[in-house]
Amino acid sequence: MSITRVGIIMNGVTGRMGANQHLARSICAIRDRGGLKVDDDLTVMPHPLLVGRSETKLRNLAKQSGGVPWTTDLDAALSDAACSVYFDAQVTDARVPAVSRAIDAGKHVYCEKPSATNFTEAFNLYSRANEARIKHGVVQDKLWLPGMIKLRTLIDEGFFGRILSVRGEFGYWVFTGGNPGEECGDGGKPQRPSWNFRSGDGGGIILDMLCHWRYLLDNLFGTVRTVSCLGARHIPYRWDESGQKYKATADDACYAAFELDGGVIAQFNSSWCVRVRRDDLLTIQVDGTHGSAVAGLRECRIQSRSSTPRPVWNPDEPKTLDYRDGWDLVPDIGTYENAFLAQWELFLRHIVTDSPFPWDLLEAAKGVQLAECGMESWKTRKWVDVPDLGNINTQTLN
Known about the structure:
Layout: E1 2-11, H1 16-32, E2 36-39, E3 42-51, H2 55-64, E4 70-71, H3 74-78, E5 83-88, H4 95-104, E6 108-111, H5 119-131, E7 136-138, H6 146-156, E8 163-171, H7 205-220, E9 224-232, E10 237-239, E11 245-247, E12 253-260, E13 265-271, E14 282-288, E15 291-295, E16 300-304, E17 328-329, H8 339-353, H9 361-380, E18 384-385
Parallel strand pairs: 1-3, 1-5, 3-4, 5-6, 6-7, 8-13
Antiparallel strand pairs: 2-3, 8-14, 9-12, 9-18, 10-11, 12-13, 14-15, 15-16, 16-17
C-alpha cells in the first residue's frame, strides 16, 4: 500500500463555511479516517496549510484541526513545493487575484463559487488555467445532497415521464443584528457575514444563488437557455460584526424564472427575508406527466400518477383533502457522505489519478454568467438569453 501526499493551501477557511465544511468536515475528516483509499494499492493523504489574514484566527483553527501548519504569507505558501493544490474560500471579490497568483505558481486550483464577481473575469480564470495546463475545479456541493441524489435517481429511472416544470424555494430569515426598537432591527444575531449584503464586496443573493441554480438545473433538468429575474433589496439597513449599522447595498431576495432545453420551465425564489413554512430550507418540486416529487436537503417525497388525488374547487366548504397525504417517502439507499467531502474526494482522485472531474472553472463561469444575465434581466425588465459558452470568442473578453 502506497500513500500519496497532497499538500493543499487552504486560503480563507477561517470563515464559517471554510472552517466547518471544507476543513473540519472534509479535509480533516479524510485525514481522521486514514486518508482517501483509491484502491487496494493507493491511499491519498491531504496535508492542509492554512492561509489567512488573522494570526489569532489561524492559530486557533490550526489547533482545533490537530496542529496543522498555517501562515499569513500567501506568497510563501504558493512557493512551497510540497503544496500542489490551492483552495480558495475567501470573500468573492478577493478570489480572482488570489486564484490568478496560484495559477501563475503552477498550482492546481479548487475554489468556492462564485469564482468571480463578473463573467469576464470568471471565464478568463478558466482560460488561464487551461493555458497553464493545471487541473481546476469549483465547489458545486448541492449536487451531492441526499435529496438531489434521490431526484437524480428518479429522473434516471424515468419516474417523472416527461418533466414539465421545476419549482424551487430557498431561504430563511437572516437577522439584521439591530435592536427591535431601531429601524430594521429584529433583536437577532446575524447568521451571515455583513459583506453578503454589500455589493462592493461581492455580496448579493443573485450572484450567490443563481450560481447554485445553474449547476443544479444544468445537471439535473436541462441546460438553461433564458432567464427572467427580479431582484429586491427588502431590508435597507443591517448591523455588522462589530455592531455598527450600515446601509445594505446588495440584493437580499431574487425571484427568477428559467427556460431549459426540452421546454422545461423552472422557477426559483431565493430570499434572506423569508420565514420558513415548508419542509426544509431548500425545497424543489418537480412535476412530470407520470409523477411529481418534492425534495429537500436530505428527504424526497413522491406522488405517482396513480395516487394523484382529484381536488375540487369549493371555497365555501372546509377542505376534505389533506394535500400532504399521498406522498411517499423515498428511502435512503445506503449512507450519504457530507456533500462537500464527497466532491473533495472526487477532486483529490482527479489530482492523483487523472479521473474525470467535469466541475471545472468553465462550470464556475457558467454560474457567474447566469447571475450576470439575471442582473441584466432585472435592470432591463426583459427575458435575457444565456449564450452558449462554446460560441464565446475569448478575444472579446480580454
